[in-house]
Amino acid sequence: MPRHAPDTDELLQRAAHGDGQARQAVLVRHRERLKHMVAVRMDRRLAARIDPSDVVQEALVDAARGFDDYLRQRPVPFYPWLRQLAWDRLIELHRRHLHAQRRSVKREEPLALHLSDQSALQLADRVLARQSSPSDRAIRSEVRTRIRAALDQLSERDREVLVLRHLEQLSTRETAAVLGITEGAVKTRHLRALERLRELLIPKAEGE
Q: What secondary structure does DSSP assign to the chain, as a single string?
């Protein structure tokens, strides 16, 4: 039987022992996840000028430069570390091209880059996709203004945990590393955010 491809932890262990191929493999294996994150978060005005792949490539160059330090310290799981590098690149691009220096965009302010309408619709659809009643199906076809309004009524913390879990599809562990909270706190916040969003959307559809 063919041997399964090594997972990220195995590649990191090999890289730490000087395996150059493992080093290269682990740096590029999350390229598509990073590209998706950038596409979800990128302002539509910026998306018309810059390809998400270019942002990811720059982030991977940064990762290659800082890889040895990461291996020594392992401050967070590997993907959240890579994601932060891509996030920093994306923030800088927004500042440079959209003149967004009016407010400080820090790690603690993950929603400084707002979701596009398409991403908002995708988030609402994924959050409500497991519901099967006619009212839920109606919600999935609601106009984007209603979905946007509901998402905007969520707190930034609640909205962000939904984005991380449902759009970026991060694991609970990865989400905890990105937000700097415990996995238990992620689970609690996630459930609360789901309930709040459904409260905002479902009653409106049922009343029509």
A: -PPPPP-HHHHHHHHHTT-HHHHHHHHHTTHHHHHHHHHHHS-HHHHTT--HHHHHHHHHHHHHHHHHHHHHH--S-HHHHHHHHHHHHHHHHHHHHH--TTS---TT-GGGSPPPHHHHHHHHHHHHTT--SHHHHHHHTS-HHHHHHHHHHS-HHHHHHHIIIIIS---HHHHHHHHTS-HHHHHHHHHHHHHHHHHHHHHHHHT-
